[in-house]
Please model this.
Amino acid sequence: MSADNRFVAETTFHVRYAETDAMGIVHHASYIVWFEEGRSAYARMRGSDYASFERNGYYLTVAEVHARYLHPMRYGVQVVVRCWVSVMQSRALTFAYEVVNADAGIVCVTGESRHICTTHDGRVSLIPEPWRSWGRD
Amino acid sequence: MSADNRFVAETTFHVRYAETDAMGIVHHASYIVWFEEGRSAYARMRGSDYASFERNGYYLTVAEVHARYLHPMRYGVQVVVRCWVSVMQSRALTFAYEVVNADAGIVCVTGESRHICTTHDGRVSLIPEPWRSWGRD
Amino acid sequence: MSADNRFVAETTFHVRYAETDAMGIVHHASYIVWFEEGRSAYARMRGSDYASFERNGYYLTVAEVHARYLHPMRYGVQVVVRCWVSVMQSRALTFAYEVVNADAGIVCVTGESRHICTTHDGRVSLIPEPWRSWGRD
Amino acid sequence: MSADNRFVAETTFHVRYAETDAMGIVHHASYIVWFEEGRSAYARMRGSDYASFERNGYYLTVAEVHARYLHPMRYGVQVVVRCWVSVMQSRALTFAYEVVNADAGIVCVTGESRHICTTHDGRVSLIPEPWRSWGRD
Model:
């Protein structure tokens, strides 16, 4: 789960009001959406975004997601999502995440998501380059 | 805007926690999603659901949406969404909505949405039957 | 994780269009919201809803969530969320979930969420009755 | 509705995958959330963010929202939300919005939202400074 020696993408934004709930804090499902935005940013920074991955005939289907909530976050706070590839296999990969309250400098949520590479007709496929190479650093 | 002599579909559900915000009330964008679920229920009750409308090659593109917020709603309350066709034209139609707090018996939000019928390649199209006929009652 | 001999709450609704994504299927974060609606329904069926739990001075903070995606779901399909208490401790509990495509009769997503009972000022608290007793069947 | 001579706040982000729907485009309710993020950015740029507005005892309740959808947007596109105050009254104000596809340089959605200033116990209130002054340019 450690990001040591990995390429780590960081993306920054403010907590939106719509992402809070009646407890006055960010709703726990919002972080799952932020994880996804974290891996979108990862692909953009690597130079091969997910939109082109899809246009080339592939999907990265979500097989599993896991989140641990350590500290709450509130509206307006600046968020940093840190995302890296923690496991790369030929047909599946796992992204790991840290969601940081940038104002307070603390990690609030951690998580992972596992994905299967498929073609648009649903068959499991080898992960194409350059995505495949992302497991090699 | 009145529902007089119109077929009115009612759909009932509870406010979800995720639909609230840090003010402790339902977030205003949640009602836009409920309007959509109201027109989904309308089509199901009419016997020709929107999933089959799409499978037949059409989309009902949202051109405009308008909501007026009269009273707040809270988590757990039972909601009734009332939906009817207020304007039917050959290529466009307007749905109208009332969102009712069923526990308190009051109308909390009203709105309308205007839609254009298109084919999947984006061309404006005549609204097919039986949808077209829904303007005739 | 098995629901054997447990009280299982079932709640039924249709997939909303807003819950789908550009892959044409239900977005994976939507299931996290459905899990929450599953445990809301659980509490309502047990006769002590979460709204009154909060009014009595408590929160059930989400500490962890985990979902496994087995089969995709699409707009308009009828969903059943099955929810039960899998672990009950004095200050924490775990709910387990199965999300079923009721039209096809298959389990599409499974998951769990772990929660800590706190007072509104954030201190960890004993889970009050009758919630506490839900671990005894 | 024109932004002539007004202070206009611009905020930029990418379309998130979760914000799309099964038509392959951004879901129409997502823009309502972006409008809100547009006015959050407006307040931040003006030097008095909405979080402190709330901490000072006020809410800006949404009374009405209206959106016109001119062109669809897709996952990954860079979005600019332009937001300005179009009407300022003593107890109410109206924000106007343009949502621009920054890659294509076209306005995709326009809208307005009307808000009432209240105290936390729900009474209508004068809009406090410096928010009040935002109608004077």
